[in-house]
Design goal:
The complex is a heterodimer of chains A (59) and B (242). Chain A is an all-alpha fold. Helices cover 88% and strands 0% of the residues of chain A. The radius of gyration of chain A is 22 Å and the shape is rod-shaped. Classes of the chains: A mainly alpha (59), B mainly alpha (242).
């Protein structure tokens, strides 16, 4: 009962939870995008600076 | 200027940002946990708006961050245009996506707040329209900065766009005073002090701290990535010449 009261948010559940979910999803998406770009850039740089090592590890 | 000169050394920049990054992440995580607790459990519903006031704890800090981020980008543009400092350009580019994210969060959460309170998802009033323009300025900056084969060629026009767009910041801030808008007036950043209840001000400021910590961490990460990308471009062009 208490939990359902909390999730109901005084009848405004859709607006409140949607706002928070969308807001957090945008922040998480930017975080994921930034980390994946950082990782791929680091891998590319490693491949350029140490081409032999990279070929060996690929093999 | 001295700060940019000091940080221009890539090793020094990496050393300093490596120290700041975990602190920013930790501050953001702690503030977010505490802020969520205060926003949903320890703050009261508004006597007029009911529980929809809880949207404010994500909407308002995101709006502050969107404006602060743009201001920092514009300052970086000045440093880039006047002193041609590449780190200033990298900083502006790194801040663009988080800034656009904050502007988008402001617009969307504002819509979800406006529908039950005003009876409409959107209205072309001064505050909403100027915030939409800020979002478009972010998109325009990113398109212009990345629209050239060589990244550096987009830096100057993109920096100029940032400077032109600064005029929008006071318009956003004072739109509710200059025009008769549907959006409520300022209740925190006022000359005569905040008019908001302290029980609501506390989660608001803590959520702003959480977003600030996240913004610093992401900007550091993105700046380091852009520095690596420029290094890759230099190495590739050197290889193609040899």
């Amino acid at each position: 009962m208490v939990m359902s009261h909390f999730f109901n948010m005084g009848g405004y559940a859709f607006y409140i939870w949607s706002s928070w979910i969308i807001g957090m999803a945008i922040l998480i998406a930017i975080t994921w995008h930034s980390f994946s770009h950082a990782r791929s850039a680091r891998n590319e740089l490693d491949a350029l600076e140490h081409p032999k090592q990279q070929r060996d590890s690929d093999a | 200027m001295l700060m940019f000169d000091y940080l221009a050394n890539p090793t020094r920049f990496r050393k300093i940002t490596t120290a700041i990054f975990p602190v920013a992440v930790l501050v953001s995580a702690i503030a977010l946990t505490f802020g969520l607790y205060l926003a949903f459990f320890a703050s009261p519903a508004d006597y007029q708006q009911g529980d929809t006031v809880r949207i404010m704890y994500i909407h308002v800090p995101a709006a502050w961050m969107a404006m602060m981020c743009y201001l920092l980008m514009a300052l970086s543009a000045v440093f880039y245009l006047v002193w041609r400092h590449p780190l200033a350009d990298i900083g502006a580019r790194a801040m663009a996506l988080p800034g656009a994210g904050f502007a988008l969060i402001t617009l969307l959460t504002g819509s979800f707040w406006g529908r039950p309170m005003w009876g409409t998802w959107w209205v072309w009033d001064a505050r909403l329209t100027s915030m939409l323009i800020l979002f478009f300025l972010y998109l325009g900056y990113m398109a212009l900065a990345d629209g050239f084969e060589r990244a550096e060629r987009g830096s100057k026009p993109a920096s100029l766009l940032l400077l032109v767009g600064v005029i929008n910041l006071p318009i956003i801030k004072f739109s509710v005073d200059w025009w008769n808008t549907l959006h409520q007036g300022s209740s925190v950043l006022r000359l005569d002090g905040p008019s908001i209840d302290p029980a609501m001000l506390k989660p608001l400021l803590i959520m702003a701290l959480a977003m600030l910590g996240w913004f610093i961490a992401i900007t550091i990460l993105r700046m380091n990535t852009l520095i690596i990308r420029r290094r890759i471009t230099n190495l590739e062009s050197r290889k193609s010449w040899s």
